[in-house]
Design a protein that fits this description.
15 strands, single chain, Aminopeptidase, two-stranded antiparallel sheet, 303 residues, alpha+beta, seven-stranded mixed β-sheet
């Protein structure tokens, strides 16, 4: 009797996992971001991801925009851009690219990095990042504002240890110092807040990396792995808010595993080396990279 019960439980688990996998595979969204062009960097042995956080409000209702303090800005933009390099052997590296990085946008001259996304969406942003870094990008994952809220709530909140109390009226943020679990609305405000941070956007990119580590850690915790209801909520939230190019179910699972390694002792995380964080130009205040240090970093990503 006991053996039969165990077998039934194992069978039920297998059916659940297969059904979940089929659901995710058939509901993955696609974004057209990867294109060949003359002079594109050569593909290396590392698997390189470009992770993009879309700041578009187009999928949010008027009530959601008001509740989440996102404002009503039209068009497409991004405040989150990260490169994740996963070697065949060794530890992954996660690098933040500040939105105001001063780079050449192919066909559009010098401008802020996030301007590439505003002008030409994920495809132009991907080409701009490849051109600026010399790194061939294999996969792209793009997540909208609502995805942060839905995925955070789906896993029961994301833990964060906040070094100081923060209030940011524009982002709708009001959090105390200390370790706590953020709900979706608070998590979105936490990763978007910039004006209340003494480091500005450079402080924000650190919080974005911290949030992603927390989300992945929570996803792989018993609080989710032992809760089929949360697994389904997460699958629904992820497939409705995250779009991929160059990746399917298997690659997306490898992405989660690599992010989990970055969050522990098995990976590295950093911001591209900065030479000047407040250079005044014709397009406003920009961030310039330390060319020699950045080049050395990108060489390790492109292997």
């Amino acid at each position: 009797m006991l053996v039969r019960l165990v077998l039934l439980l194992v069978l039920a688990l297998l059916v659940h996992l297969v059904a979940l996998g089929i659901y995710i595979s058939t509901h993955l969204q696609h974004v057209s971001a990867l294109r060949d062009y003359a002079g594109r960097p050569a593909d290396g042995t590392n698997s390189v991801w470009l992770l993009v956080g879309s700041d578009s409000r187009s999928k949010l209702t008027r009530a959601q925009r008001a509740a989440l303090h996102t404002g009503y800005a039209a068009g497409q933009r991004t405040d989150t851009m990260l490169l994740l390099s996963v070697p065949r052997v060794g530890s992954p590296t996660l690098v933040s690219l500040p939105r105001d990085s001063y780079v050449t946008i192919p066909g559009h001259g010098k401008n802020k990095l996030n301007g590439a996304y505003s002008i030409g969406g994920a495809a132009l942003l991907t080409r701009t990042v490849e051109t600026a870094t010399g790194v061939h990008i294999d996969h792209v994952a793009e997540m909208g504002l609502g995805g942060i809220v839905d995925m955070t709530d789906a896993v029961g909140g994301v833990p964060q240890c906040i070094p100081r109390a923060m209030k940011d009226a524009k982002a709708g943020l009001d959090v105390k110092k200390g370790c706590q679990t953020l709900d979706g609305k608070t998590a979105l405000a936490y990763v978007r807040a910039r004006y209340s941070d003494p480091l500005g956007d450079l402080g924000r990119v650190q919080r974005q990396r911290s949030y992603l580590r927390g989300l992945v850690s929570r996803t792989l915790s018993p609080a989710v792995l032992l809760r089929p209801d949360r697994q389904w909520r997460l699958a629904e939230a992820a497939t409705s808010s995250v779009a991929f190019d160059g990746a399917g179910l298997i690659e997306s699972l490898r992405l989660v595993r690599a992010m989990h390694a970055v969050g522990g002792s098995g990976g590295r995380q950093t911001t591209v080396p900065i030479a000047n964080s407040a250079l005044q130009t014709s397009v406003g205040e920009v961030v310039t990279w330390d060319t020699s240090k950045a080049r050395a970093l990108f060489r390790t990503l492109a292997k």
